[in-house]
């Protein structure tokens, strides 16, 4: 494991402490940004866009911004737990709470990740369909891109490639400007938290947005990524900056996608059952071909980036549970089971997306809702671990962090129970 610390900079003879800090920060930026950017995956983009098309400029924009606090809280605890304990989340569950809970979290994560990977393939394939690629070929091309990342050697090289992919997500900012949103309506949404029209499944959309802000894979990915990168407890303050950067970028892009979707407000009947390709084509028809191509590029890139991070969370989780070699610094021959989980997961998801007549947009929304439900027990364990002095020492949760974490947990549990009761009554 390559340990990143200030002593590693001594060879550069740098005396300026501020410059030294900036260099170290740049070297540590990665897992937090990737986890946050992975939240804006293809499924999330579809959900955000459909939400904007369904409700226009409404409460979902300020809601998305408020949820960034929730995202930061969860990511910060996950980062701190991983860097201090130097153990993966699933390994800690097995060590402290036994095989039952370890296997429960392992198998539910693998199931949720397959669903999420399916939505990533939906988005990537839809992006390629717009430029004339047949669906089956689009799926094969997407599969090839996802698998190609493991051919690069070393953790840092893989991470930097993924970060470069993340830059392309900025196309959604450009599309939002092309929509020319009504500023008074935006201000009104922040003041009154209103929404246009009526929908009996409003809570379904709210649950999907909440579920997209804190996906289960994120907790398993982030701690393991920081460990694999060689980050240690003394760099927690830099890890927090990494996470803040990621959360800020994530929420800006999420809001821009919702704004992009408002261009289709009221124009597509039964949009939940329309495929992503239809949504992209509708954007192109309404805003011009350039907007459609930009959206297609953005959703393909987002699906590709998220596929890599989501699949890595599955691989790290399975390898830690069964004590297999599991570093991205290992070659395929050195960690065959770790990479087998990676390869197998994306192949299964690629096969699922080829099933004809799937309600693709509805599946994307449903996946976010399921993620919001599955995150609850994971979050409870995360709070318990970050309060254990035997694990965290002086880095355990402060009173303020505990209050914030408990509020987040209670809100998620309340939202989940409310949504379940609402679904049963409806």
UniProtKB/TrEMBL annotation:
Q: Which InterPro entries match?
A: NRAMP_fam
Q: Which UniProt keywords apply?
A: Membrane, Transmembrane, Transmembrane helix, Transport
Which residues are the signal sequence here? none
Q: Where are the transmembrane segments?
A: 21-39, 45-70, 106-130, 136-156, 161-179, 202-227, 248-270, 290-317, 338-356, 362-385, 405-425
Question: What membrane topology is given?
Answer: Multi-pass membrane protein
Where's it found, cell-wise?
Membrane
Please name the PANTHER family in this protein's record.
NATURAL RESISTANCE-ASSOCIATED MACROPHAGE PROTEIN 2, SOLUTE CARRIER PROTEIN FAMILY 11 MEMBER
The protein here is known as NRAMP family divalent metal transporter
